[in-house]
From TrEMBL:
GO molecular function terms noted in the UniProt entry: cysteine desulfurase activity
Cofactor or coenzyme needed: pyridoxal 5'-phosphate
Residues of the Aminotransferase class V domain: 3-369
Enzyme class, first EC level, given as a word: transferase
E.C. number: 2.8.1.7
Keyword Protease attached: no
Family to which this protein belongs: Belongs to the class-V pyridoxal-phosphate-dependent aminotransferase family. NifS/IscS subfamily.
Catalytic activity: (sulfur carrier)-H + L-cysteine = (sulfur carrier)-SH + L-alanine
Name assigned to this protein: cysteine desulfurase
Gene3D superfamilies: 1.10.260.50, Aspartate Aminotransferase, domain 1, Type I PLP-dependent aspartate aminotransferase-like (Major domain)
Origin species: Candidatus Methylocalor cossyra
Keyword set includes Iron-sulfur: yes
UniProt KW keywords: Iron, Iron-sulfur, Metal-binding, Plasmid, Pyridoxal phosphate, Transferase
Length: 389
């Protein structure tokens, strides 16, 4: 088995989560919308319990949580709802250049289809938006505005100052949508205290199953601005028609319960391992650098550049170290990472970078083994003059 250092792409299902899900895949197979028998009541109760636990991890209320197939669906629902809201004929979306494609792609599409104004703000060399510029842009128009800026970047780990962003957004009378996918379970998330109106995240980034996630809708927002993306049987308070994925939701709840009880200790341990990997590579390999904000970042992630090396060639040369060059959702692209380009890197520099993201089951032996193999491969490729391009 390879040493797995790609947890920002997905995490392995925790065995405790798997065990919690198992009965709902076999004996307890009821549909929570079936209100006429015990199997349906049982499933309905399980969903309600999971909803409360998932909401609790992010300091929200159970009634503010809509289960989805993942963060991408949640973000699309929020963005499309905003544009489709019938009482707003003049709208715009403000986002930033380092957002995940789950925000940038629907923004582009909505601009094409509806004519909604989309403004993509640049970031500085650490990946931060200029709050003064955001304030100026918000004040430059009387259009109804949605601001979509993530909590933690998936490629560099950089944390945005979410609470300060929310203050600027709300002072202008705008709505704040935040992709919290990479922050949940790694740093403290309190949606109400941080002033987030809409937020999306996924189970499979917190050691739960793939195919389930949640959209948080702060009380009051749903009555005025949210419309369903999927119409059907009226599930999820009428916001998402579809038979609920009970095993996935139960697994999501258990994953959040585990995270709630242990994320701080886990973050400290993983952070030490991340620091060891990062510091050793920077000390032992010349012409290496770290992308993003090293002081304000999630504890499991580092994005390191190796001058003169093509990252994909390096990954192939290492064989059994599972890492990535960018977000898994855009890994099929042959061009450089849009996130790293937004930070000011050249094409060659961006294509020389690897994201390392550690997790719950990463060990010191894993890190030391990975470091030894990375250094050997870099020395070998540099000595051979191989760039892969």
């Amino acid at each position: 088995m390879p040493v797995y250092l790609d947890h920002n792409a997905t995490t392995p299902v925790d065995p405790r989560v798997r065990d919690a899900m198992q009965p709902w895949l076999t004996d307890r197979y009821g549909n929570p919308s079936s209100r006429d028998h015990a199997l349906g009541w049982d499933a309905e109760e399980a969903v309600a319990e999971a909803r409360a636990v998932v909401a609790g991890l992010v300091q929200g209320q159970a009634g503010e949580l809509i289960f989805t197939s993942g963060a991408t669906e949640g973000l699309n629902t929020a963005l499309r709802s905003f544009v489709g809201y019938r009482d707003w004929d003049r709208k715009r979306i403000i986002t930033c250049a380092t957002e995940h494609d789950a925000v940038l792609a629907p923004c582009r599409r909505l601009a094409e289809l509806t004519g909604v104004e989309v403004q993509v703000l640049p970031v500085d060399g650490l990946g931060h938006v200029d709050l003064d510029r955001l304030e100026a842009v918000l004040g430059a128009s009387d259009k109804a505005t949605l601001v979509a800026i993530m909590a933690a970047n998936n490629e560099t780990g950089t944390l945005h100052p979410v609470r300060k962003i929310a203050e600027v957004v709300h002072a202008a009378g705008a709505v704040f949508l935040c992709d919290i996918t990479q922050a949940v379970g790694k740093v403290a998330v309190n949606l109400h205290e941080e002033g987030i109106d809409l937020a999306a995240f996924s189970a499979h980034k917190v050691y739960g199953p793939k195919g389930v996630g949640a959209l948080f809708v702060r009380g009051g927002v749903s009555q005025t601005r949210l419309e369903p993306l999927i119409l059907g049987g009226g599930q999820e308070q009428g916001f998402r028609g579809e038979t609920l994925n009970v095993p996935g939701i139960v697994g999501f709840g258990e994953a959040c319960r585990i995270a709630q009880n242990g994320w701080q200790g886990e973050a400290e341990r993983v952070g030490r391992l991340r620091d060891r990997l990062e510091q050793t590579l920077l000390a032992e390999l010349p012409d290496t650098w770290v992308n993003g904000d090293r002081e304000n970042c999630i504890p499991n992630t580092t994005n390191i550049g190796f001058a003169g090396i093509d990252a994909r060639t390096l990954i192939r040369d290492m064989h059994d170290i599972a890492v990535s060059t960018r977000s898994a959702c855009s890994s099929g692209s042959s061009g450089p990472s849009h996130v790293l380009k937004a930070l000011g890197l050249s094409d060659d520099e961006a294509q020389a970078c690897i994201r390392f993201s550690l997790g719950r089951f990463s060990t010191l032996d894993d890190v030391d083994y990975a470091v030894a193999n990375i250094m050997a491969s870099v020395h070998r490729l540099r000595a051979g003059g191989v760039s892969g391009r």
